[in-house]
């Protein structure tokens, strides 16, 4: 079930039931790490080690509660109850050793995922998590009154929000510890390290364990906030630098977290390690880990021995020597193994120090001694590619281990050997380009093959390189190829325009590799690109007449339209465009889309001029030039075709002549009516609107909008009359005499 950690203000806590007086805790640590940053999900847990032999079963609880505090003022942030999710025996390096020394330790993990309100965890000083419990094993040697001394588990973590942004961090992750014990006066090594999920730096140091505030009478109190938890009291002769006394007291490597000790007396010793977490050299978290180490008086155990003797020699190899393995000699060495203890299982392994571990094998790798005088043999063999470079020795170790308790005893034999390298046969590279030269016309393709060969079963790489240029920039394609014995790769070149006018040198290289040795061969080709002969493009139209195109006055439907074509025998990329000769196409309402692309190009010319345009251009002969241009190398090919347009002059009212000034309406059929011939019937220019006739008193007696009007002076007497011919741009006035 999802758990949410709330702010602690006004939070009610419950008391855990008091456990019976117990002597059970071996050690452990708290863990706190991000599970899903997007949803603020975290894992919180306690890894607890429990003495399954000396501890009391009723001291084990199904749940525990961890408490969160703020460092700056020790304010309580909240608590979380965690169920037990793992319960198992911890493993030992040698599983039979725990039976000999009556050791059995339980690993119990309490943990759960929770959702945190990260906005509540933004204090720059950070926070800490605590769990307290009493009591420790009553057989602990190096502290006072262990059966009544509690243990405090503690983890510090940084603010989860910094500068308004989420600050992602996880505490170090620690593998389950082993339950090995140490022997008096025998070196003992114990890996106490962890790994940081965020890649932060970890620094390890021994520190005094904390007793905390739990007591024998109150073994499971609600943890208190504190900046200085009570510490345990060391027993007589024990101090922070002498936690496990002996020829070599307990120490820890601050970088690796590996503990080592040579204890001087038996006992059960508790110790604590502070693991500091640094990011960008700034301390952001600390987790305290505790454990205890049992030191016993072990039976004597002889150290196994690894020896080597070169063939033909009587003396054994000394580590100050260097052996030499020649090309014609076997690439295997016989290693001799001995152990004074009978019935010991010996395990042997190799470690390459300046070459790959996988290039070294040993067989067999496991033996059982039958007597103290047994001499066993293991054979070390080198991969064919293990060889010395520049006469420098390769270095490796043979490590033999027994199965003694609590940890195997080992002997390491370091051997230096100069292994003569295998010579690499010279490869050969050729092309099938005649004489290694070629001249290529632009736009055409040159192809040939490049082949690299080797006399041996070697790895080959064939590559190509332009001398002073990149192959792709010059339009060349060549893929590097790999293989064994023989490798072929094609070369192709289709020169672009930019490639003409210079020589190109391409170097082809074959590299043969045998292990770490290489041999090469090179062949070069010289290439030139020249322009291709260019056919001039051609521009044409679908106009069927050679005469200028007549431009009519607009009537709403008439327009000039035709297609323009651009062709090229070479199929070069073409441009087709139009230009008015002495005028602007678009300003004159002509429409034509310039085109670019491979032939054939087609574009439509359209012109439907309005009156305003015709008035501007009336009476002119216009020409439009249509041009096709290719993009061939060198001088571009061009063709131009002109189309002419004829525009008539627009009629004007001033051009009217022979307007009559006398009529004789007497019925003789001659000059009986007033009319005007050739009145303009156009849509552009001056347009006839009407005619008005007035008597001498200014009264309108006749009006018509018909351009074919006739006024025959019916019902009017003889006399002088006045007319007005009204046009769109002016009115022509005159007198008319009527004689009957």
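^ structure tokens above, recovered residues below v
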């Amino acid at each position: 079930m999802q758990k949410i950690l709330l702010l602690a203000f006004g939070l009610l806590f419950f008391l855990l039931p008091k456990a019976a007086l117990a002597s059970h805790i071996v050690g452990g640590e708290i863990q706190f790490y991000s599970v899903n940053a997007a949803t603020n999900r975290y894992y919180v847990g306690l890894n607890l080690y429990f003495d399954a032999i000396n501890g009391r079963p009723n001291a084990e609880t199904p749940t525990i509660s961890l408490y969160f505090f703020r460092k700056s003022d020790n304010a309580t942030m909240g608590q979380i109850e965690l169920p037990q999710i793992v319960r198992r025996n911890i493993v030992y390096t040698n599983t039979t050793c725990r039976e000999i020394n009556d050791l059995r330790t339980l690993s119990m993990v309490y943990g759960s995922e929770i959702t945190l309100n990260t906005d509540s965890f933004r204090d720059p000083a950070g926070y800490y998590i605590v769990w307290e419990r009493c009591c420790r094993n009553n057989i602990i040697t190096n502290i006072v009154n262990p059966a009544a001394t509690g243990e405090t588990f503690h983890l510090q973590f940084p603010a989860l929000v910094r500068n308004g942004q989420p600050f992602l961090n996880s505490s170090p992750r620690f593998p389950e510890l082993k339950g090995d014990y140490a022997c008096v006066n025998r070196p003992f090594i114990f890996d106490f390290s962890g790994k940081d999920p965020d890649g932060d730096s970890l620094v390890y140091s021994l520190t005094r364990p904390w007793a905390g505030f739990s007591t024998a009478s109150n073994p499971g109190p609600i943890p208190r906030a504190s900046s200085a938890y009570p510490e345990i009291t060391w027993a007589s002769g024990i101090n922070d630098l002498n936690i496990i006394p002996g020829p070599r007291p307990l120490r820890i490597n601050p970088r690796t977290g590996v503990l080592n000790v040579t204890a001087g007396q038996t006992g059960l010793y508790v110790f604590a390690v502070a693991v500091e977490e640094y990011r960008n050299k700034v301390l952001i978290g600390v987790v305290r880990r505790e454990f205890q180490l049992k030191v016993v008086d072990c039976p004597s155990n002889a150290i196994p021995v690894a020896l080597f003797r070169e063939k033909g020699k009587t003396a054994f190899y000394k580590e100050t020597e260097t052996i030499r393995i020649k090309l014609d000699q076997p690439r295997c060495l016989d290693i001799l193994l001995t152990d004074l203890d009978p019935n010991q299982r010996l395990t042997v392994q190799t470690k390459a120090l300046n070459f790959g571990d996988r290039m070294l094998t040993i067989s067999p790798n496991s033996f059982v001694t039958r007597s103290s005088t047994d001499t066993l043999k293991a054979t070390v063999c080198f991969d064919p590619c293990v060889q010395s470079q520049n006469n420098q020795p390769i270095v490796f170790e043979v490590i033999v281990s027994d199965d003694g308790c609590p940890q195997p005893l080992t002997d390491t034999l370091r051997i230096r050997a100069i292994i003569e390298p295998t010579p690499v046969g010279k490869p050969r590279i050729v092309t099938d380009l005649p004489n290694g030269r070629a001249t290529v016309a632009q736009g055409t393709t040159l192809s040939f093959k490049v082949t690299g060969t080797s006399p041996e079963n070697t790895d080959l790489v064939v590559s190509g390189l332009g001398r002073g240029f990149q192959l792709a920039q010059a339009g060349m394609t060549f893929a590097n190829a790999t293989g064994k014995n023989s490798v072929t790769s094609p070369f192709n070149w289709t020169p672009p325009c930019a490639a003409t006018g210079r020589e190109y040198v391409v170097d082809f290289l074959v590299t043969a590799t045998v292990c770490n040795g290489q041999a090469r061969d090179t062949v070069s080709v010289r290439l030139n690109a020249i322009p291709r002969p260019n056919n001039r493009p051609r521009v044409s139209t679908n106009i069927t007449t050679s005469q200028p195109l007549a431009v009519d006055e607009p009537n709403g439907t008439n327009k000039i339209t035709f297609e323009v074509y651009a062709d090229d025998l070479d199929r070069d990329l073409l441009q087709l465009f139009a230009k008015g000769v002495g005028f602007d196409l678009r300003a004159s309402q002509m429409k034509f889309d310039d085109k670019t692309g491979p032939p054939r190009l087609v574009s439509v010319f359209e012109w439907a001029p309005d009156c305003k345009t015709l008035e501007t251009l009336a009476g002119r002969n216009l020409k439009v030039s249509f041009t096709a241009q290719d993009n061939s190398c060198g001088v571009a090919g061009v063709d131009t075709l002109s189309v002419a347009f004829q525009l008539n002059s627009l009629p004007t009212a001033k051009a009217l002549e022979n307007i009559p000034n006398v009529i004789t309406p007497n019925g003789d059929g001659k000059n009986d009516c007033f009319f005007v011939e050739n009145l303009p019937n156009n849509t552009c220019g001056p347009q006839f609107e009407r005619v008005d006739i007035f008597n001498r008193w200014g009264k309108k007696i006749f009006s018509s909008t018909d351009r074919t009007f006739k006024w025959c002076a019916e019902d009017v007497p003889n006399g002088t009359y006045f007319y007005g011919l009204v046009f769109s741009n002016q009115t022509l006035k005159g007198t008319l005499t009527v004689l009957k």
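Residues 21-296 form one domain.
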